[in-house]
Design brief:
Length: 621
């Protein structure tokens, strides 16, 4: 048997196991993924009338909460599209390898912090600064409706497989002098762990095998990173406030970090000159990319901080984060204004000036009790993050190649004097391509993006108990973007049609005339009462029991988030199988890979209003 035949047999086995697991969970049969670049095969589409009613709504008992609080955050009228996933892949630009719709928080990007999110403006009418985002839906007129089944060779065509992890050194607070050596040793260990995992990936002939990837590579790597990152936090906590680094533990397997194998239309394109003008909305602003700002990492350049300066340095590091967030927000809110130099003159230029002043304050604070670091001003220029990280501080920031081109955020970030090259090498993964062209195509996700006709965001009650407030900055994920490579345990059926919300399918749906295609994402409604995130971004929340609605032991009911997204997709497009979900390369537009992400940035006052409305059994907005 050839390797290719073995791969195909193994892939068919994986699909079969996934189908069995899904049927056992009580949902429809899992859809086979389509060939990369094509919509899902005909077998992945189902008339909604053929889907049996399967949505269970537990009866609200005495002591339960039946209210619903609705938030209007629009339908992404600002055109904030991004391949970032700040919840599941913090710090990894374009890490999703597919495009998301964003509503709510206007500044959010892969590099956002809780503090920068809180300073943002929002699209939500009630002032909710939370971020809600999900993969876009596209119409692909070049559909091959006779395509059938999955092809494991398409995973390999996506490009080389590698382990990608959030950079810990670039997300640390000020590191006290006493902890610097220990922190550096553990950062080096993180790099070694990633290298060992990538060596195992390189030796594996079928990196898409979920059993091997999850059990033999990602699972052990996660365990090692939990211990190592905890040691980093403990060492910092001996002399300063212990940081919460939980969100940086989880790594993932990704394919095609350079966009290889997908043709010229998927190669990253610079936002300069006429292209930058187009990105600013000269034409139909709804179809153009919204770039984000990428600045050199300051944290990776700093020496150990004297105790007397730790708090002041931390305040200024947080200010640098907020300055970037403000610039990202301005890019969204000024879309369509000015010409090709608008971003340079009105956003990146002022940002550089602010960073110069803030970096100087950091140097002065350190210099009062230790040797003052020199040359931090070279980290001031920023650029647009449009090449997956290659252009950090490069040609688009007016600073020239000497102001951070190859020396900020790249191989020299960290400097020889601060252990940069020793603790940031393997931890800095190769960049992913940015969405390109007016349709934001990348990594096989092709076609015109369909704007939602309606987005309904609801906070709902619990059938057995009153709800308690969500903690601010709670992060949640529903669904799984990689049920093929990770297995279907966390995947959820989401597809339906308006008027048929009593049934959800894991296949794309064909709706009757006059009915809209819908996606319904029901988030977990139970919280562990302690953590705002967890190593896998899931363990701190749980779903209520499907039949009774009760939360598991040790978890308390919170307002249960539901996001319903409706689309006006022509009936003939549905019948021809020409609409598709943006997805990771190995999913090939699998409808069962649908997912949704959330970061709670509601004010305490607004969350209290949500809780009271839900517990009182009212309908509010």
């Amino acid at each position: 048997m050839t390797h290719r035949e073995a791969d195909r047999r193994k892939f068919r086995l994986i699909a079969s196991l996934a189908a069995v697991a899904v049927v056992a969970a009580g949902t429809a049969t899992v859809a086979l993924a389509a060939k990369n670049g094509d919509p899902a095969p005909v077998g992945a589409f189902v008339p909604i009338e053929k889907v049996a009613a399967n949505v269970v709504n537990p009866k609200v008992q005495n002591g339960g909460a039946s209210g619903v609080f609705t938030v209007d955050c629009g339908t992404n009228e600002n055109g904030k599209f991004s391949a970032d996933n700040p919840v599941a892949q913090p710090g990894l630009q374009h890490g999703a390898q597919h495009v998301h719709d964003f509503v709510g928080n206007l500044s959010i990007s892969a590099d956002s912090t809780d503090e920068s999110l809180e300073d943002s403006d929002t699209t939500c009418k009630n002032g909710d600064k939370s971020s809600y985002f999900w993969p876009v839906v596209r119409i692909n007129p070049k559909a091959n409706v006779n395509s059938s089944g999955s092809n494991p060779d398409k995973v390999k065509e996506a490009g080389p497989a590698e382990i990608a992890c959030p950079s810990v050194k670039d997300r640390l607070p000020a590191v006290p002098q006493q902890a610097k050596d220990e922190v550096n040793r553990n950062l080096e260990l993180l790099d070694k762990q990633i290298k060992e995992a990538n060596d195992r990936v390189a030796r594996n002939e079928n990196p898409g095998d979920p059993n091997f990837v999850n059990n033999a590579i990602l699972g052990p790597l996660r365990s090692k990173r939990v211990a190592t990152i905890d040691r980093i936090a403990i060492s910092i906590g001996r002399s300063a406030k212990k940081p919460n680094l939980t969100s940086l533990v989880e790594c993932d397997l990704r394919f095609g970090h350079g966009g290889a194998g997908h043709g010229d239309h998927n190669k990253p394109k610079k936002f300069s000159g006429q292209a930058l003008e187009q990105a600013q909305g000269q034409g139909n602003k709804d179809d153009n990319a919204t770039p984000t700002v990428k600045c050199p990492s300051v944290r990776g350049e700093l020496p150990g901080i004297p105790d007397q300066a730790v708090e002041e340095v931390d305040r200024n590091l947080a200010l640098l984060d907020k300055q970037i967030a403000e610039a990202n927000q301005r890019i969204v809110t000024t879309k369509g204004q000015g010409g090709p130099n608008f971003i340079n003159n009105a956003i990146l230029g002022p940002l550089k000036d602010k960073r110069v002043a803030t970096l100087d304050r950091i140097a002065i604070a350190i210099g009062r009790n230790a040797q003052r670091p020199q040359g931090l001003e070279r980290l001031a220029p920023c650029a647009l993050n449009n090449e997956g990280g290659n252009n950090n501080g490069g040609n688009n920031n007016g600073g020239g190649n000497n102001n951070g081109g190859n020396n900020n955020g790249g191989n020299n970030n960290g400097g020889n004097n601060n252990g940069g090259n020793n603790n940031g090498g393997a931890n800095t993964t190769p960049p992913l391509a940015a969405p390109s062209g007016k349709d934001l195509e990348l990594v096989g996700n092709n076609g015109k993006i369909v704007r939602p006709a309606q987005v309904k965001i609801e906070y709902r009650g619990n059938a057995t108990s009153k709800v308690t407030a969500m903690p601010k900055f709670l992060k949640m994920i529903v669904g799984d973007a990689k049920p093929t490579s990770r297995g279907p345990a966390n995947a959820r059926a989401t597809w339906t049609c308006s008027g048929f919300e009593d049934r959800l399918s894991d296949k794309y749906v064909i709706c009757p005339n006059g009915s809209q295609v819908m996606r319904v994402h029901n988030f977990a409604g139970c919280w562990d009462g302690k953590n705002t995130d967890s190593a896998n971004h899931r363990d701190h929340v749980r779903f209520a029991d499907q039949k009774s609605g009760a939360c598991p032991n040790g978890f308390k009911a919170i307002p249960q988030l539901r996001i319903s997204i409706s689309y006006n997709i022509p009936r003939d497009v549905q019948e021809k199988g020409q609409y598709q979900l943006d997805a990771f390369p190995e999913e090939n537009h699998n409808p069962f890979s649908d997912h949704n992400d959330y970061a709670n940035v509601n004010s305490d006052q607004t969350m209290a209003q949500i809780v009271k409305c839900v517990n009182d059994g009212r309908k509010c907005s």
